[in-house]
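Instructor's aside before we start: the two examples that follow are unrelated to each other. I chose them only because their records fit on one page, so don't look for a connection. First example below.
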Amino acid sequence: MKSLLAALALGLTAPAFAAPAAPAAPASIDAALAQAKHENKPVLIDFQAVWCYSCYYMASHVLTGKEWNDLERKVVFYEADADKPADQAWMKKLNVHFLPTYVAIGPDGEELGRILAERPRDAFYAEVGTLLSGDARLSRQKADAAKGSMAAVADVLETYQLRYQGKEGLAWFDALPPVVRNVSDKDKRVALAKQQLRLLDAQDAKDDATIADAATRVLDGNIGCQRPYVLDALLDAVKTRPDAEQKALLAKQKPAYDDYLATQVFTATPACADQRSAVLSAADLDAALGDHAAEQAVLRKAIDLSREKLHGDVKSDRNVADTLRVYLVRAKAGNELDTFEKQLIAAYPNDYVYNYRYGRRLVESGQPAEGLPYLDKAAKKAYGANAITVATYRVKALQALHRDDEARKLVAQTAAAQGKAFPEQVKKLQATLNS
């Protein structure tokens, strides 16, 4: 379209009045909120990062086309970068723990709701429509819940879950009038939502026994695309238990998880967009059960499907390409992985990600001399929080090569540049000098 317009411009006189330019994107979340108040529009914040594979999926498969253009006209849109100090501060303020997360905020400043993780296209726009309608506004849900609506009680609990507020959600439920609480306790959706909040609360407290109990109860429910994340919580909570006890508990999850893969992931039109988490959790479950053949089988199936989708073109779908890389890492497919990571570096030269990942892997595998040049290239593109991440592995490589003076100088330079914005991360970087 742009080339067509340019061609026409060569043969036509310019119109007397040019079309108004599109408004510039807001420079910050604060600016977006101010603009939204002025224009009486909601803000839609897309919390993402250059290393986020789920964000690649959303950018290329969902945040495109007529639906996206229509949505952009209805909202003030801001793309927040998780590696930039100001945006990371807002992540903490809004309690955002998962990328991508889409947070809608009304022109009055009240949160309208949020969407976590990637979604199939139709599901995303339906959910955004609900947010913008105001139906997911927590204050409205609470008002309806107080009137005795069981659906609203469940809505409130699920909203607290999206906000990672387990303790707060459970406290709200306990404060409901007994007549509402006693009835809603018998509702299956409410019961499941309470267990999900109990799981979040136990994770905050690092209470493995309660995590395992709550996760098991949640996994007994119809939780759709959340299944891999809850299974991960269970796997982590029981890993220190005796082998026989661990396997007996996890074996009960195998049939339901296999059914989930067959019906919602490995299908022509998957209900769950995050295939990567589904596959990796399946492999982790098989590994915990001691079934190496099943572990490799699910990884090789996912590898083959990913290769089919790419048709030999790494640039055709970055989400699939990056997911294939992770499957190869998990399958310990060394030669395949070396070749593929170099293809990714060539295909995506404009950010730090693949040079960093390849260099890091070389350093971790005992090849610091080979890994350092890739990390040096990554450092030229890195910024903010990810600059500290890259520096950490450059320091490790330099130390392994006994270039300690260079390592100390690099730490000092990074601390000077990033220490004010990211003090905790810089402290960890400085600690590598003593490791």
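Example two begins here.
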Amino acid sequence: MKRNIAILSLVTGLVLGSTLLRDNLFTSTVQAQGVPQISLNEGQARLQNEQNTMDIVKSYQDGVVYVSVYAQPEENAFADSPFGGNSDPFEYFFGNPQQQAPQQRSTPEEPEQSGVGSGFLIDDQGYILTNYHVVADSAKIRIRLHRSDKEYDATVVGKAPDYDLALLKVDNLDKTLAVPMKLGDSEKLAVGQKAIAMGAPFDLDFTVTEGIISNVGRVIPTGQRGIPQKAIQTDAAINPGNSGGPLLNSSGEVIGINTQILSPSGGQNAGIGFAIPINVAKSILTGLKSGKTVSGPRIGVSGLPLNAYPLNQLRQELIDQYKLPKQGVLVQEVTKGSPAEKAGLKAGNKSFKTSIPQLPNIVLGGDVITTVDGKKVESTSDIANQLFSKQNGDKVKLEVVRDGKTINVDVTLASFDDSQ
């Protein structure tokens, strides 16, 4: 026992002693007898990767913008929720979304700063890409450039809540201070590539972090309705405030837009961050510039999952009567003029009351969508996930159970008016 204590004391002494010795070393240079002193040149000692990062930051950091958001005191509901504060699991996913009208105030109030975020210039006309959740419900937006303390008023030109993207416009930017960023090709990414994140984490404006691409097709809930979509995963440090900032490759091209983190500690970086692939933004940029609210592809139906409440509470005789399968999405309504209507999808005709305030009735007798392009679906999110990889004009093949029989229905995606 004494021997063990002696060994432990020796080890402890080595650790503490090393610390004390280190702290008490003379700071002057000591040259050993006969060994020539080496003079380190910082420029020559830099690694190639280090120099590349420094060159990228020097060349493109002026394209990053610091975003300050001002909102009415009680209106900034979406900022902390990936689902937009909407917890109703039966919200329409594919047409006729019900939107709650904003509350009217008897007396106007001055906007107050509600948050900060990041963005980046995409051209010399003052267009800026950022996340929708950064600017949602904002009463006023102001931006600041890297090398200036001057603030500019920004307006939201277009928004895409489903993709968590927004396009801002700033007039009269000082073009000597603003450097538009180059948009890359996120389809060419490979795991292991370098990734550089720029933005304002924790309100520390114009911060740079570096890592690698950890995964090129990670599926995560994205946007106001939390629809699962592909994202770029990176271990470059991303934190609150980085949202909307650019993720760059070693060529200085924007490959993604920083959007979310996975954090067991509740808000701090844990080495797992996500970015929206830049090709997603490029594919909807024309729509954003036109001033539209860009939605993800929809077929024009509302539906309820068979394995979710209240349908999983149905009596067996109703299941037998309407010949319902064990899994799938039961069509509740088909929007007039939609791709679903043109393809011949059928809604039910028998209404049943429920005890759910948000969903007073369910409709039986309609089609049940069981697969999209051969992939099983159990929820409206599953259907949305399959559709979000498509474009208008693409065809999707639905497997549908109708009156107990399985049929195939081809749906051609197209824009449609769902204003009703």
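Helices lie at 2-23, 42-45, 48-60, 132-135, 278-289, 316-321, 339-343, 380-387.
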